[in-house]
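Quarterly update, task 2.4: adenosine-5'-triphosphate-bound model.
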Amino acid sequence: MRYAILFDFIKKHKFTYLLGILFMFLASYIQTLFPKVLGQTIDIMKINGFEKNAVFTNLLYILMIAIGTLIFTFLWRIIIFGNSRKLESYLREKIFRHFLILPTQFYSQRKTGDLLAYSINDISAVRNIFGPALALSVNSIVVCVATIFFMVTTIDLKLSVLTLSSFPIIIIFILWIGQEIHIQFKIVQENFAAISDRVQENIYGIRVIKSFVQEDKEICNFNQLNNNMMDSTIKMVRTSSFLSPVIEICFSFSFVFSLIYGGNLVLNGTISLGDFIAFNTYLTMIVHPVVSIGRIVNLAQQGLASLDRLIEIFNVKPFFDKKNSINQLTEGNIEFRNLSFCYPNSTKTVLENINLKVPNGQTHGIIGKTGSGKSTLANLLFKLYDIEYGKIFLNGKDINEYSMQGIRNHFSYVPQDTFLFSTSIKNNIIFFKDIYSDEEIEKASQDSNIYDSVIRFPDQFNTLVGERGVNLSGGQKQRLAIARSIIKDPSLLILDDALSAVDAVTEAQILKTLKTIRKGKTTLIISHRISAIADADQIIVMENGRICEQGNHRKLLEKGGVYYEIYKDQTKDQKKS
Ligand SMILES: Nc1ncnc2c1ncn2[C@@H]1O[C@H](COP(=O)(O)OP(=O)(O)OP(=O)(O)O)[C@@H](O)[C@H]1O
């Protein structure tokens, strides 16, 4: 069901909602008793030598009405607004959970700022439906129905019909404006998402912007988005600003009819002066709820527009493992059989006819021109994209038989663009898993050659790395990411150009250590540098998504093909220096 996510929440909180609505009903209904009591009091006081006791009793009623309204209003506000805040937190948790289980390809098509807008603005707009909009609706319905009922039954039917004749016009107008607001609010939200995306991207890329002196251009781009946001908001405000004045004009006519026709009824004795005052008080009382209909429509349409956006996200199918999928992957035997691959929403074949066996315990190096498909090959081993059956085998079984969790628990991947969390070095190594001892953390950092750098920091392993590791050098970030991967002692370790920012000596040291600690386990080293893979058991050379050469360093040099050319190119520079 489309709104299932909301119904689940409402079902869970139905008793508090019912109680809150009951209190709202009582608070609103009690208010509508006031005009009649006021009218009666005036009629009593009109008579010479009026009964003081009767007036006193009526004043007591008025006081009780005020106290009752206060108590019930206090109670419903706590319950209903409390529930709306719970709903906000519930939706935020749901969307965050959903974001984490969505397939990787979802993130290739969405921008971060847009996703932030969902988590903040849209959820808050949905909350408004179940907070202020709900409260105003109940109040408006109860006050309008009760007031009209009292006007018609206790005062005068004709006078009521005449003064309320503008109501249908108001309702039609509100419904028409509501549709416009719905459309315009969606545009406002999209513009907000674009702004938040731009701010996020600029802050993230501030160093690049500064180094290319792009500040003015970026400010100009931002101003354009900001103006779009302002224009769309002003357009929406302009549309919604019609609501109140139109409603108020309609009411002015009602008051004119009431004064002319109602005044005549008093003069010819059809209704009393008290009734006339009560009628006008009813009319005054109804103005606020009817004007509120405009606000309710505003809030509801904004909330519904946001709800549509949220549901669109919730409808994106997350990845789920199939039943009985395998969790254990203690060995790293890998086989690609006739694998060809295109990225979703792309027609370009990125990998073509890949046939490759990596037996457990071996180290394979992968080299090739940029864009030749090396990272894609590695990504597919992590089930980042759907792969048909019969193409990739892990320990003799199809990759689709394994659970996502199983693969990611037993395999480790150090990507090209290292990502560090804004926390301590230690947390970045253990990745918030308190299962590693201090000795294991130190060992992993020694093996990845980052230990000496860490202990030179005043706070050592507790040093905060800053957002995305801004306080560390490129090489330090890479080595920290390697430490994070090797502490898991995975059955398959993939280093994707993960040594590109370290110097040749450090690279050699890390590779030497890896050789020891990775004995009996599979390692794939993707690199542009021959030095990083020369020692591998097998080297795969890729070109345009195909494996063009395969063998060990010596054999490939003897062959005098692509690998030999790369080797020649790289050693030529060394010889010169
Ligand atoms: N998410 C994606 N969607 C569509 N195409 C992609 C995506 N990621 C990569 N590609 C394309 O796939 C091809 C192979 O990319 P890949 O990253 O695997 O190359 P690579 O050999 O690792 O390159 P490099 O050495 O520069 O890292 C490239 O043409 C690239 O543009």
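Highlight for this quarter: The mean pLDDT is 84.
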